What we know:
The chain has 185 residues and is an alpha/beta fold. It has a single domain (33-175), classed as Rossmann fold (3-Layer(aba) Sandwich). Helices cover 24% and strands 39% of the residues. The strands form 3 sheets. The protein has a 5-stranded parallel beta sheet, with helices on both faces. The two termini are 29 Å apart.
Amino acid sequence: MSKTYPVEIAGLKRELPLVEVAPGVTIALLNILGDTPLVRACAHELAKQLEGVGYDVLVTAEAKSIPLIHILSEETSKPYVVLRKSYKVYMGDAIQTETVSITTGMPQTLYLDAKDRDLVNGSRVVLVDDVVSTGSTQKGMRTLMAKAGAQVVAEAAIFTEGDEAQWKNIIALGHLPVFLAEKKG
Length: 185
């Protein structure tokens, strides 16, 4: 039986699997894909927390946050943009930046396609993610928004993770610890 970390978020309880992402570094893994009740509850709560923020567009990186931003868009009546991790020919004159995810540990490229570039240009945007852990994805999204002429006015997530003080500016519904193995010797 695998170990889990219990959480209560947006009024719902979940057991998050504990996953070692690097030697001696374990996280409680949130995977909202397919968990429609949790996605709806979290989007509803985030929409409430964003009520006082003046913004035009919601922005996320694919893939796990797509259902969250879709429901958040419905809740707020704001359009959304998904930054892609691979380039497709229909994306036209896309702009790109590189990031590293804690769950993969590998460099990834984020792309903003031409259509969405026009939507965010001159707009006030809110960056949305499921979990903000290292900040690499957030940094990549901020870089792309700056290149596209958008102003990031807020950042939101279901959870922040790790050094809580580092994420004080993130609108979040909760915080997850990072578990570090004790050094032997």
